[in-house]
């Protein structure tokens, strides 16, 4: 039963009055005697309530007996609780406003987990957008910075083959040859023949490339960095302990193989 259907069924005052009067099972005649509407109108309203999942009906001799469905009230109560949480959190929390609807639409699903996934998606969008903006200020793309940063994380002498970068940092960059040529032309890395495999190019970060990365890290942190600083040290520590564990569990769901990290 959907929250929309429940609310729509109860929007009519006469129909809502019938529902409220079903404190115990009753027939159409019983209900018509209590309300200033015809038996036909009572029957039509009960039909809507039954279709919405608010009321059950069962035959009893030549009559049909109607009664409330307790689980329908629980769905409405859960929706009201979710809306109360939204009011406490503030109107900007659009994700939380969907929690009650998820619970009513699919009660077998943990809607709290779905909400977390929605939060991760929105946070990820912000992180990528901000990182692109920071990279652009240095005349680079997010993909360029990801590649240079992977070389930096290897430590001195900051060199590797592209295949090793892919294995070590799960990076799979489209248009690799053209990207490497542009970074080399900018003086941020150099390419040479790999002595161990002459078919592969050895990539090495230049002093200029290292300087650009250091400036980005020291002076060009995105908005999300400053947002995280607004959390307490204990809150950041909690995230730092939970997120690696979550990443391990997600890796396991993907068959222990983390997919290549693709940036455009």
From TrEMBL:
Q: Does the keyword Manganese apply?
A: no
Q: Where does the sequence pass through the membrane?
A: none
* Keyword vocabulary terms for this entry: DNA-binding, Transcription, Transcription regulation
Record's SMART domains? HTH_ARSR (SM00418), HTH_MARR (SM00347)
PROSITE patterns tied to this protein: HTH_ARSR_2 (PS50987), HTH_MARR_2 (PS50995)
Gene3D superfamilies linked to this entry: Winged helix-like DNA-binding domain superfamily/Winged helix DNA-binding domain (1.10.10.10)
Recorded GO MF terms = DNA binding; DNA-binding transcription factor activity
Which residues does the UniProt record annotate as the domain HTH marR-type?
Answer: 113-248
Q: Would the keyword Transcription turn up in this protein's UniProt record? A: yes
- Source organism's superkingdom? Bacteria
Q: Which residues form a coiled coil?
A: none
Q: Where is the HTH arsR-type domain?
A: 1-88
Family annotation (NCBIfam families): HTH_metalloreg
What name does the UniProt record give this protein? HTH arsR-type domain-containing protein
Q: Which organism is it from?
A: Hydrocarboniphaga effusa AP103
């Amino acid at each position: 039963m959907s929250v929309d259907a429940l609310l729509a069924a109860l929007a009519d005052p006469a129909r809502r009055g019938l529902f409220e009067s079903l404190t115990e099972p009753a027939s159409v005649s019983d209900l018509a005697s209590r309300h200033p509407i015809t038996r036909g109108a009572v029957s039509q309203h009960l039909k809507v309530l039954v279709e919405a999942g608010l009321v059950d009906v069962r035959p009893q001799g030549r009559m049909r007996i109607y009664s409330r469905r307790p689980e329908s009230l629980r769905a409405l109560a859960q929706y009201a609780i979710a809306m109360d949480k939204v009011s406490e959190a503030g109107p900007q929390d659009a994700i939380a406003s969907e929690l009650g609807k998820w619970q009513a639409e699919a009660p077998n699903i943990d809607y709290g987990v779905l909400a977390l996934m929605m939060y991760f998606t929105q946070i990820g969008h912000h992180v990528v957008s901000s990182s692109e903006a920071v990279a652009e200020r240095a005349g680079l793309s997010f993909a360029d910075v990801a590649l240079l940063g992977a070389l930096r994380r290897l430590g001195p002498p900051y060199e590797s083959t592209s295949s090793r970068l892919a294995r070590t940092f799960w990076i799979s960059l489209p248009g690799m040859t053209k990207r490497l040529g542009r970074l080399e032309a900018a003086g941020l890395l150099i390419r040479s023949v790999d002595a161990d495999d002459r078919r592969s190019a050895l990539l090495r970060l230049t002093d200029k490339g290292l300087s650009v990365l250091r400036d980005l890290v020291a002076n060009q942190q995105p908005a999300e960095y400053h947002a995280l600083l607004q959390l307490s040290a204990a809150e950041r520590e909690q995230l730092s302990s939970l997120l690696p564990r979550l990443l391990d569990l997600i890796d396991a769901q993907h068959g222990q193989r983390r997919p290549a990290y693709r940036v455009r």
